[in-house]
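Reviewers of the previous submission asked for a worked example of the structure-prediction workflow described in the proposal, so we include one complete record here. The input consisted solely of the amino acid sequence. No template or homolog information was supplied to the procedure at any stage.
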Amino acid sequence: MANHRETIEPAPTTLDRLRSRLRVLYLGTGPRAVRFQVVMALVDLAIIIFFLLGPYFSGGRTYLIVDYVIAALIAFELAARALLTNSFMRWLTRPMTWVDIAILATLLFPTTFSNFAFLRAFRIWSLSQSKVFTLLVKRAGCGEWEDVIRACVNFLTFLFLVTGFVYTTFFYHEAGIDGFIDALYFTVATVTTTGFGDITLPGALGKLTSIVTMIFGISLFVRLAQAIVRPHKVVFPCPQCGLQRHETDAVHCKACGHVLNIPDEGS
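From that input alone, the workflow returned the following structure tokens.
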């Protein structure tokens, strides 16, 4: 009589259960995960607002309290995302990890480093590239405008990141909101290639910033214009040739003529 050995799986540890819960929250598309990721996006917006208001109360005690609270939140999220990954080295080599580390450093040492909290806009951009964003857009009844909304988010994120960099590097210590307005004015004039020339950035760093802004900015601007002007199409890969986008009522692929079966909810 053959002996059957029962394989007993080890009970999940507390760390395993914590990782499982974090994966559901950060990577899931369920109602609880969607709510969590939206809340995290609102936290990112709050951090950006704190960055914009920094010059108004940077010398007070309240500023330091809020600064260190935000630093604690970012440190907590860094630890949570480190627990999420199966490879610590992969997590360490991700660009967003170093973005958060840079922000954390500027918050922990506010008198030594400039405030680079505007980089949290990358988090909002990354949310717009996720499945949760698609789910939220469809739930809002704007599924056919997803490409336009995504292009707007991409362009506005780039605009804010460049404005934040220019503001931090060249105008951050100016009193009032005039410094941020000057940085935004310069960025918009550069992206649109208007180039009035009344506000320019000094030195080699200023010239390099202008060059990068013009190259990437005009590309995103054209991409936004294309998304608005071109007719709406659905994403449905053709089984024959792989063409991704088709008209909503297409029966045959316009590239190879293969019969398509695009799902339709009906009118």
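The longest strand covers residues 233-235. We consider this example representative of the routine output the project will generate in years two and three.
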